[in-house]
Amino acid sequence: MKLVYLLxxxxxxxxxxxxxxxxxxxxxxxxxxxxINYTLATPTKxxxxxxxxxxxxxxxxxxxxxxxASQYAFLWFYSFNKSLSIGSxxxxxxxxxxxxxxxxxxxxSNYSVTYTFDQRHQYLQFPLLFKYTxxxxxxxxxxxxxxxxxxxxxxxxxxxxxxxxTGFETTSEPTSKLFSNNEQFLYSNVGATSGIGIVYTFxxxxxxxxxxxxxxxKNIADKQNRMNDQQLSGEFYSxxxxxxxxxxxxxLVYSVSLKCLRRYIxxxxxxxxx
Length: 274
Hints:
mainly beta, Porin, disordered N terminus
């Protein structure tokens, strides 16, 4: 995705004169967006510190509605015509997912302990999107599809412990600790993305709402370093599973067309469909 930005800048500065620059820029739309997202972590291979005698035991990953976080982005699109455009974003996203481990020791007291983990990853993402605008009125619905490349720059987890002794009918107060666990995860991710949206068009600007879905195609766990955090594995019996991340977002979008730069283009070079 870095090549997309470098190539765009390279082509822009290669354009021979002010007219060519204005022609290129007049087809651009730039903007910002921000909103909330929900992440679903899907384990493809599981790892555990302790072996359970219960064959039904498994680590419990919570669903979308428990995993809310946020994202925001700078975006740009280049229009080939009124309907089809290509663009990209510089997007900062937090991927958040919760999972639980519950262990039981069956004896006189029937002791159990539940560990709840709130895992967060912060990514700088670069989606490359093809967008198709369906209508060309004031209200314009659209669909978009493409791929993305993500660079993770931070990971941390909050681990909470609750202990219960059924025989004595006592439950401890929850205790929690915050850990940085950067080494347990790879620093890049790739995947596919698609979305739908709708905008209201003013003279030079647009405001709207869109929903996008990101499907990670790469295991984010670092296989070489999954056992490196002795505190997480020793105190909380947690080892990172092989994971794929799915990520749905809802965002408010504000964008501005640069068609105002058409005044720098001599009339004989202006396209009739612009």
